[in-house]
Amino acid sequence: MPYTATRPVPAPTPDELRSRVPGWGADLDPADRPAVPRERHDLESGAHWLEPEQQPELTPRERSIEHERLTPVFGTAQPPKGLSGALKRLAYARFSEGRNAHWLLLVASDRVDAIESHLASLVTARPDEPLTQSGVRAELTHHGWRSRVGRGRVDVKHAWLDPVIVAGPWVLAGALAVAATRVALRR
Amino acid sequence: MRAMEYRGPYKVRVTEKEIPRIEHPNDAIVRVTMAAICGSDLHLYHGMMPDTRVGSTFGHEFVGIVEQVGPSVQHLRPGQRVMVPFNVYCGSCFFCARGLYSNCHNVNPNATAVGGIYGYSHTCGGYDGGQAEFVRVPFADVGPGVIPDDISDEDALLMTDALSTGYFGAQLADIAQGDTVIVFGAGPVGLFAARSAWFMGAGRVIVVDHLDHRLQAARDFALAETVHFGEVDDVVLHLKRLTGGLGADRVVEAVGAEADGGLLQHIAGAKLKLQGGSPVALNWAIDSVRKGGTVAVVGAYGPVPAAIKFGDAVNKGLTLRMNQAPVKRQWPRLMEHIRAGHFRPSELLTHRFPLEHIAEGYHVFSSKLDDIIKPVIVPTAA
Predict the structure, then answer these.
(1) Best residue in A40, A45, A65 to probe B by mutation, most B CBs within 10 Å?
(2) Is some CB atom of chain A closer than 8 A to the CB atom of B139?
């Protein structure tokens, strides 16, 4: 196909498209597009304040060092705790969002949080149950086999990784526990 | 109250939590009647988003009934049926004053790079979300909207994120009459973006995915041409051939951090979390758009760096446009489209799970079982 100034694959006419697609061209005029222009000063947000009142800080709230103050409103769910909490506080207090250390510390603290929380759950009336919490029962009730096999799904090729990621840390922790017990018994 | 609780990567359960309370004078407490699991919730579920704490309740797509309002709330009252945008925002900061509601500076102490989002990690503000019987809704005079009588809960639920984000994505792409538009991803956001591209005057719409039931929805719901990227040798080359060798005028990337199609990128980004997501679809978007074209990104990525083909984007003179959707700005026009009968968004709701079966709901959605497109969660008290 020669490279010319015309569109190589012409579009159907507006009449053809209107007859085929309900609503075709209804927002053709950018003035009908609610996100255009991107920045607008004439929108009524509903705010009846120039500056929002400050939510009380009942417990110390970690914040990005890029913020000069605690934001007027903030979430209070799951305050930092334990070793993971210390890592999170360090990430927020020491590194800006422009530093990889900030994010990598937070990612690492999440893994520590998972381990801490699983261990802590073992001494509660409701310990973690990895099997039921994974929802894997749905494989039987929602056609696990039929949904995957013969469907041309690209993700099936690496699906074997998922149980390794889910069960791997548990198997590793179990192996370490067995090894530690053996060492203790030898002494 | 009963609430979904994250217990670490790939693990969730239902637990008993305290009913949230008014913590700021402009808060409301909403009794959730219907919530959804978003594709981006799966990034949390898979442990990809930094500072996702065990014990968190996810859920940024929900509708419900106002249960209680704080002393400064003027526009809402208990008993009203409301839809709540996924954005938590103040309506008055530098960014909100410019309509950038998803970029509010007053609601997220944990980060300046992202606004507040319900149930979406502490990186997005540390708010518990709506996959629960009750949820705290800050700035009740700004975010929530009363659902009109002629709009169903199901359509309203989709307007809280997926529909608004897809519609916003098509707008970001700057579509002009007759443009060829490629949409990567046939999840709910991609399907809504593809359907919306026609509203903007697209001449062709091509949807790319690897799940056959979603490609069928792209044909039936979005009235689009489809490409199964697992069935072609080289998807970029295939798309170039389909567009006369030039590439598409506009591309919408509606896949985000867990894109498949490049094993190395997928494992590094989605499985081992060594980068802020797998940018396979984003790189395909850069490669398959024409020179001088626009790539609109509404797929969700983490804040850690990712391997993007930026050189090609520069050399092709691309316009890259992206943001989280400022949801409430989309509602009036979307309701006009629904009332005009242009489409029925709730056609994409394929599954309902009681809150008590939340673990199964996440597994089915994450593993794409049972031809799922969009799951709804129904709390016990609803």
Answers:
(1) A45
(2) yes
For testing the chain A interface, which of B110, B180, B337, B357 should be mutated: the one with the most A CBs within 10 Å?
A: B110
pLDDT in tens, B314-355: 999 999 999 999 999 999 999 999 999 999 999 999 999 999
Q: Spell out the domain ranges in chain B.
A: 2-161+326-378, 166-322
Contact B379, B32 (CB under 8 A): yes
How many CB atoms are closer than 10 A to CB B66?
21
Number of other CB atoms surrounding residue A18 within 10 Å: 15
CATH code assigned to B166-322? 3.40.50.720
Which of B7, B15, B91 faces A117 most closely, judged by CB atoms?
Answer: B7
Residue B303 forms contact with A (CB below 8 Å): yes
Does the pTM of the predicted model rise above 0.80?
A: yes
Q: Which chain A residues are Cβ-neighbours of B362 within 8 angstroms? A: 135
Q: Is residue B309 helix, strand or coil?
A: coil
Q: Does domain B2-161+326-378 have CATH number 3.90.180.10?
A: yes
d(CA B222, CA B190) in angstroms, rounded, equals 9
CA distance B61 to B63: 7
pLDDT tens readout for residues B110-136:
999 999 999 999 999 999 999 999 999
Sign of CA dihedral B191, B160, A23, B176: negative
The answer to whether B115 touches B96, Cβ cutoff 8 Å, is no
**Phi/psi-derived region of residue B312, left when phi > 0, alpha when psi is between -120 and 50, beta in every other case:** alpha
Minimal Cβ distance to A26: which of B56, B126, B199: B199
